[in-house]
Amino acid sequence: MSDEELLELYSNPETRRNAFNQLVRKYQQKVYWLVRKMVIDHDDADDITQEVFIKAWKALERFRGDSQFYTWLYRIATNESINFLNKKRRRFFVPIHDIEEELGDKLASDPLVSGDDIQLKLQKAILKLPDKQRLVFNLKYFEEMSYEDMAEVTGTSVGALKASYHFASKKIEDYLNGTD
Questions:
Q1: Start and end of every RNA polymerase sigma factor 70 region 4 type domain (predicted)?
Q2: What is the mean pLDDT of residues 115-144?
Q3: Which of 65, 112, 152, 180 is a good FRET partner for 72, with 20 to 30 A between their CA atoms?
């Protein structure tokens, strides 16, 4: 079923739960991996993914359809991920480079992260990026999202997103070449 059909079913109180369950099944893995690329840790990503769908459930009646459903859902997921990382930094008074190191250590020891040394080095390079650049890079590179959809997700202009992706790519290239 299309998102539009599922949202139509959601508007009917008798089919609301079933429609939402189908939306969750349709997007749960995509949301999980989007969050996971930001927070790295499986348990944290799992918790945040649940929180995303709880927020979506509570707010879905107010969804006006001005954007696509998945961009609306991704916006909730990105906001939750960035809020989580900011809270973690504040809670432990941890400088940003220490968070990067902690996430890098988790990445290197995570059995769910597969790949060779090059893939691991790429993931570590991505962790060096500021949160918003990391988000833009992940959405463009891994999710293959258009700049227009990214603009809906992030609330940022297409021009700023292109610049952010360019700077992120350059930083990653420098890191991979050992010139950062």
A1: 120-172
A2: 85
A3: 112
Q: Which long-range contacts (CB under 8 A, 24 or more apart) does 124-130 make?
A: 124/175, 125/171, 125/172, 125/175, 125/176, 126/37, 126/172, 127/40, 127/100, 127/103, 128/100, 128/171, 128/172, 128/175, 128/180, 129/168, 129/171, 129/172, 130/96
Show the tokens assigned to 17. Answer: 């739960």
Can you tell me the distance from the alpha carbon of 180 to that of 175, in angstroms, rounded to the nearest whole number? 5
Query: pLDDT digits over 33-85, tens only?
Result: 999 999 988 999 999 999 999 999 999 988 888 889 999 999 999 999 999 98
Q: What is d(CA 89, CA 101) in angstroms, rounded to the nearest whole number?
A: 13
CA distance 56 to 66: 15
**Which structural domains are found in the chain, ordered by start?**
3-176 (1.10.1740.10)
- pTM, two decimals, is 0.78
Q: What is the 3-state secondary structure (H, E, C) of 81-124?
A: HHHHHHHHHHHHCCCHHHHHHHHHHHHHHCCCCCCCHHHHHHHH
Phi, psi of 128 (to 5 degrees): -75, -20
Q: What pLDDT is stored for residue 123 in this prediction?
A: 82
Pairwise CA distance, residues 6 & 87, whole Å: 34
Beta strands in the chain (DSSP E): none
